[in-house]
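Hello, quick one for you while I still have it in my head. My current little project is about how a certain protein chain folds up. You're getting the sequence in one-letter code plus the fold written as tokens. Would you mind checking whether the tokens look sensible for this chain? Here's the protein in full, and shout if anything looks odd to you:
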Amino acid sequence: MPEAETEAYKQFLALLLYLRRRLITLGVLFFLTTVSFYALSPRILGIVQAHLGQELAFFGVLEPFLALLKVALVCTVLTLVPYLLWIIWLALANVFGFRPLTGLFFIVTGLLLFYGGVSFCYFVTLPYGVKFLLSFQREEIIPTISVGHFVNFVGLFLLAFGLIFELPLIMVILTKIGLLDPYKAGRFRRHAILIISILAAVLTPTPDAFNMALMGVPLYLLFEVGLLCSRLAKKT
């Protein structure tokens, strides 16, 4: 094996060993944080329930326990996002040799985008979506919402919106490592609009044009911001 390949192999193994320690730490933090949030999960569920104005029911002996556990898990993921971004940054820095200043940009921007997406979903998309879905009820059709399905629904969309809003950061990173040319990508806006429309139709809780626009328009703006930032990153 050539010397250069041997050195690269050793660096790769060292990176895996380093990340393994971080992932073990992440697992311990995840467990402890989940246990802590489980004690608070009834209050958190009550806050979300009041925010969306819903009465909940359960249809199984284990459903309340599992629902509260899922609340704790979602809150844990939301809380540990900074540590997750740090681990991802460490991997990128070791593989591609990014500068320390780039790491600060990556973590701060990632946090702003992720929590911005979660906030947008919580305060804008979910209230309108739930209101629309329940607008089909009639006097003879009284909605009974399962607490388990409610937690799944809210948790899924909060995390999905947080990840989707990371689009500009992902585009910049892909540009820095040479996998994306923002000037060529800018020529495919029609394709981007089509993909964004499909994502909006899948991710939004309702199929109407208004709620799809609540997801699609911000996502397209994020795409344009990502193109702009990627072009600036390509010049540096």
The mean pLDDT is 84. The longest strand covers residues 56-57. Helices lie at 3-52, 63-96, 100-133, 147-164, 167-176, 182-185, 189-203, 209-235. The CA atoms of residues 6 and 192 lie 41 Å apart.
